[in-house]
Specification:
This protein is mostly helical. The chain has helices at about 1-20, 25-35, 75-90, 110-125, 130-140, 145-155; strands spanning about 45-50, 55-60, 60-65. The protein has 6 helices and 3 strands, in the order ααβββαααα.
Length: about 160
């Protein structure tokens, strides 16, 4: 029981640290300004790490990050946090209309906006090669090929 308690305390500490760091990130602050939201709104957002079949998701203003992110770099945790917190902003404004189908995922303006903020953060903290590799994996995962692939890549890199 004591081990579980320490594990929970550690996760709570990671979430608190993540929120504090995100509140300082230019890509996030820009979106808060755009949505006329105080960055401290994230103090009220429930964030958990759970087993998921995706990296992260936001449901009704609650952010769920894949527990496997706890085994990755800090930059990965932050970038997924930023992405999902953009969805919190969108949901609070009523801009989200249910779950996006995988085939339409990268065509969705809300997803594009969240990825742009995420990639903007990455551009401040990672090498350009890592960003390119991430984009290639993302586009591969969604089976985007040919001319559409280049168009999507350009769109996702707009804010970088």
């Amino acid at each position: 029981m004591e081990i579980e308690k320490r594990k929970n305390e550690k996760i709570i500490s990671i979430i608190e640290k993540m929120k504090n760091e995100i509140k300082k990130e230019p890509s996030f602050l820009e979106k808060c300004k755009e949505y006329k939201k105080d960055p401290n709104f994230i103090d009220e957002v429930k964030i958990t790490f759970e087993p998921l079949d995706v990296s992260a998701k936001t449901i009704d203003g609650r952010v769920i990050l894949n527990e496997n992110l706890l085994k990755t770099d800090w930059v990965d945790i932050i970038r997924y946090g930023i992405h999902e917190l953009i969805h919190c902003l969108q949901q609070a404004e009523g801009l989200v209309n249910g779950k996006v189908e995988k085939k339409d995922y990268l065509d969705d303006e809300n997803e594009q906006e969240a990825f742009q903020a995420q990639i903007s953060y990455m551009s401040d903290h990672e090498d350009p090669e890592e960003i390119q590799q991430y984009l290639e994996q993302l586009l591969d995962h969604h089976n985007i090929q040919g001319k559409e692939r280049e168009e999507k890549k350009k769109k996702l890199l707009e804010d970088v």
